[in-house]
Amino acid sequence: MHNRTIAELINGLQSKEFSSVELTQHFLDRIGDLNPHYNAIITVTAEQALKAAAAADERLAAGNAPAMCGIPILHKDIFCTNGVRTSCGSKMLDNFIPPYNATVVENFEQAGAVVLGKTNMDEFAMGSSNETSFYGSVQNPWDTDCVPGGSSGGSAAAVAARLAPGATATDTGGSIRQPAALCGITGLKPTYGRVSRWGMIAFASSLDQGGPMARTAEDCAIMLSCMASFDDKDSTCIDREVPDYSAALGQDVNGLRIGVPSEYFSKGLNEGTEQAVRTALAKLEQQGAELVEISLPNTGLSVPAYYVIAPAEASANLSRFDGVKYGYRCEDPKDLQDLYSRSRAEGFGEEVQRRILIGTYCLSAGYYEAYYGKAQQVRQLIQRDFEKAFETVDVIMGPTCPSPAFKFGSKGDDPVAMYLEDIYTIATNLAGLPGMSVPCGMVDNKPVGLQIIGNYFDEARILNVAHQYQQITEWHDQAPEGVAS
Amino acid sequence: MSIERHEIEKLAMLSRIAISDSTIVEVSQRLGSVLDLVDQLQGVNTEGVQAMSHPMQAIQRLREDEVSELNQREALQKIAPDTEEGLFLVPKVIE
User: Fold this and answer.
1) Is B67 at the interface with chain A, CB within 8 A?
2) Given an 8 Å threshold on Cβ–Cβ distance, is B37 in contact with A414?
3) Please, which residues have CB within 8 angstroms of residue A229's CB and are 6 or more apart in sequence?
4) Within chain A, what is the greatest distance between any pair of CA atoms?
5) A76 classed as catalytic
6) C-alpha R_g of chain B
7) Rounded distance between C-alpha atoms, residue A377 and residue A383, angstroms
8) Chain A residue with minimal CA distance to B92?
9) Is A201 on the interface with B (CB under 8 A)?
10) Would you state the pLDDT for residue A426?
11) Using a CB-CB distance cutoff of 8 angstroms, which residues of chain A are in contact with residue B17?
12) Does residue A24 form part of some domain?
């Protein structure tokens, strides 16, 4: 059962080939057997899952089942789940049990999905390798000496290892697309404002966006149709109808204009990765798509602009963790200042502390205009690049990341080496555009991701393009050794 | 770019993060390396360019000034480190 896609599992449930309880138990057994090898899941909610599955079976029998009724999924441990620990990968929230559900969690519950548990992640979503998690690194199912990417590394590894057919994730600078690429699965970051951020623990509020991870574009379409909604509780959510993304998967790519930015194929790009991406583009060209060379001249500024904006917003967002109302509190504080500064020093890991300090620096008196103000202006320049490009092309394509999965610890002590991992994904977040990663080849037996960027609210189009690509290729069907059996 | 010791101490105070004496040099080096990266922005001509905070230029929605959240004091205080009679407890502030 674990080798089937969500679309296939929905058919299996509806034709009574198996029940949701059987399906859920099957994935729980797999998690019990295999999760110790990958460390992809922090909390397993077996009891609640089986109860939800039994309820789903009743609805399926009664014939009034919603879209994802009885389908088991995992939530990234950044989404608040009522009564279930939500750690955000941090010691700070190791004991945090939210008294409410995130809107995304609520939406999947409405759609009848069964939650198997919560996935591992970089602490507060700050990282590109999952090495900053308080709960330890996640192993990449393709090569357990390598990172799964981050920050949604647990969700990506779990889907790749077929511990669940789909998982939720979030993307602030590439945290859905990069781990999807490194683990050989499909992931989508929607337009900023498409998916509610309410109950999703905030990192950089003007960039954060939740999205689905699954094995195919078709499954991502099913998940996004449930996940996206207008939400009054998120003031940046856009009030716009959610289309049926699955219904839009039938268009061929004949006549599609694909922009290929020269800046995404410059130095630093792994040769094998480039070859795989070029081959994918040629394949789409054979199907009638037109490749158009374009330029996004400010791409190089996206990483520096991001490392002002994201830490600045993080320093403000994370000020709420002070050891007073919830989360970690240090032992025997001698006064209030000591309580704050020691709880935060002991509760946050090194990378999170570094970003808070950088953000505080950039926002402090005398530096605000030179850093934050300037970065927001550069953000506008980056957005204009895309605006101009989309005057002549329908989608933009290139590699998701510069190279396949790297070994643990290989980025050394310099934080900047890790930051450059997101060079092709960050600009999309700064502009607020939707982007996907789909498997498009292998280098040294490790997956390569093709990135597809769309115009605002063009999720249906990029999902369709990804789906069409997956109709003529088999990269998304590949499984790490031992996983498919 | 290097950051002076007194600047790190000020940042630690503003951020409410205790930084031990033994790590201050390392923290300073790594922050310096990130600031070198972001300093690339200083050379960009942004004259007349508006700062961007929301991609869709969305404006803040307003609503009627009515209570919309349930009072969940007990549920919320159950997860607090220390409470007494409905209040959050912290070390004594005034002697």
Assistant:
1) no
2) no
3) A103, A107, A195, A196, A242
4) 70
5) yes
6) 22
7) 10
8) A335
9) no
10) 98
11) 341, 344-345, 348, 353, 356-357
12) yes
Q: What is the DSSP letter of A69?
A: T
B24 touches chain A (CB under 8 A): no
Instruction: State how far residue A227 is from chain B, nearest Cα, in angstroms.
Output: 20
| B42–A301 C-beta distance less than 8 A | no
Count structural domains, chain A: 1
B75 inside 8 A of chain A by CB: yes
Residue A156 domain-assigned (yes or no): yes
What is the per-residue pLDDT for A202?
97
The verdict on residue A283 lying in a domain is no
| pLDDT given for residue B59 in this prediction | 78
Question: pLDDT, tens digit, for every residue of A409-457?
Answer: 998 778 888 898 899 999 999 999 999 999 999 999 999 999 999 999 9
Alpha helices in A184-335 (DSSP H): 217-227, 271-286, 302-317
Q: pLDDT for A289-319, tens place per residue?
A: 999 999 999 999 999 999 999 999 999 999 9
Q: What is the chain B residue with the closest CA to A374? A: B41
**Catalytic site residue from A87, A90, A128, A175:** A175
Domains and CATH numbers, chain B: 5-41 (1.10.20)
Q: Is B6 on the interface with A (CB under 8 A)?
A: no
For A440-450, the pLDDT digits (tens) are: 999 999 999 99
pLDDT in tens, B11-54: 999 999 999 999 999 999 999 999 999 999 999 999 999 999 88
Residue A114 token pair? 């069964």
Distance from CA of A365 to the nearest CA of B (A): 11
User: For chain A, what is the mean pLDDT?
Assistant: 97
Instruction: Decide if B88 contacts B82 (C-beta within 8 A).
Output: yes
Q: Is A349 exposed, middle or buried (0-12, 13-18, 19+ CB in 10 A)?
A: buried
CA gap A321, A313 in Å, rounded: 14
**Chain B residues close to A383, C-beta within 8 Å:** 52, 55
Band of residue A6 on the pLDDT scale cut at 50, 70, 90:
very high
> Which DSSP state fits A320?
G
Structural domain for A195, as ranges: 6-258+391-477
Coil, strand or helix at A26: helix
Supply the CATH number for residue A10's domain.
Answer: 3.90.1300.10
pLDDT value, residue A415: 86
Q: Is B56 on the interface with A (CB under 8 A)?
A: yes
Q: Hey, is A64 helix, strand or coil?
A: coil
Query: In this complex, which of B33, B61, B79 lies closest to A235 when CB atoms are compared?
Result: B61
Decide if A175 is catalytic.
yes
Does residue A293 lie within any of the structural domains?
no
Nearest CB to A335 within list B31, B44, B91: B91
